[in-house]
Amino acid sequence: MDNNQQRTIVRKKDRALLAAIGVFAVAMAMIAVLGLVLVQPPKDTTQGQADCDQVRVSGKLPGRVERIYVTEGQMVHRGDTIAKVYSSTADAKLYQAQQMANAAASQTQKVDAGTRDEIKKSAYNMWQQAIAAETIAQKTYQRMQSLFEQGVVTEQKRDEAKAAADAAAAQVQAAKSQYDMAVNGAQREDKAASKSVANAARGTVMEVQSLLEDQYLLAPCDGEVAQIYPQEGELVAMGAPVVSIARMDDMWVSFSVREEMLKDLPMGKVITTDIPALGLKDVKMKVFYVHDMGTYAVWQATKAYGQYDSKTFEVKARPEARIENFRPGMSVILK
Hints:
Elements: H1 3-38, E1 46-58, E2 63-68, E3 75-76, E4 81-86, H2 88-113, H3 117-150, H4 155-184, H5 188-213, E5 216-218, E6 223-228, E7 235-236, E8 241-258, E9 270-275, E10 280-292, E11 298-299, E12 310-319, E13 331-334
Antiparallel strand pairs: 1-8, 1-13, 2-4, 2-7, 3-6, 4-5, 6-8, 8-12, 9-10, 9-13, 10-12, 11-12
Helix pairs in contact: 2-5, 3-4
C-alpha cells in the first residue's frame, strides 16, 4: 500500500472521529436542554411543629410527696386529685396556731365578761366603809368646831379634825372610783385590743390551714398528664412543679418563616397544611399569632449588594376543626 492510500485512510478515520464527537456533543446539548425544561427546582418546604399549652401543677406547701394519684399519659379533668404532699412541720404550726387562738379567745371572753362578782362586792364594801369613816370624821370636825368657838379646844385641834374630815371625803371618792371601775369592767380600748389579738390569732390559723389545703394538689384544667417530676417519697420545695398537664383540647402549630413570606400569612388567614404522621392532607388552619423571633434569628445576606438581612418570624395557626390523634411534636407541612 502506497503512501497516498495510507493518508486517505487516516483522513477517513479522522472524519469519522470528528463526526462521532459532533454527534456526542449534540446529544449532550439536547440532554442538557431537556433537563432544564423537564427538571423543575424543588419548592421550599415550610415545616412546623404541633404544640399545646402546658400547665404546671405546684403547691404552696413544702414537704414530702406522699402519694401520686395519676400516671403519665392519663387524661384528667379539672378538680381531680393529682398528688398529696405531707408536711409534719405544717401540722405542728397548725397545732401551735390553734392553741394561741384558744388563749386569745379566752382572754377576750374574760375581758368581755368584766370583773368578777367577788371583786365588785369587795369594792362596794370598801366604798361603804369610806362613807362611814367620812361620816364620823365630819361629826368629829363639827364638835371640834363648836368647842373651838366656845374656847375649849385650841385652833390646832380644830384644824386636825378638819384635815381628817377632808381626808375621809377623799377616801370616799377613791373608793367610789374603784367600785365604778369594777362595775364597768375593762375600758373600751382594752376590749378592742383584746379582740384584735384574737382576730390575729384566728388569721394565723387560717393561714396555716390554707397551706394544708394545698397538700392535696388538684388539676386546674382538663388535659393529659404530660410529665411527673418527683417520685413518691421525694421532698419538694414551695412552688416546685409536681405534674405538668397538656391541654390537648387546644392544639396549635408553630412555623418559623422568613419575613418575605409574611405577605402570604396575615393574621386571620386560613392556610392549607399536611400532617404526614396522620396521613392527612389539605388540613385547614387559621393564623392567630405573628411575632418576630428576635435579633438572634436573622438570615444574614451573603452578598454585599442586592440582598438584605431577613428576620425570622414565628407564625402560629390553629386547626379549624378538632383533629383526632393530633399530638404535640408532630410535623406539619405548609402548602
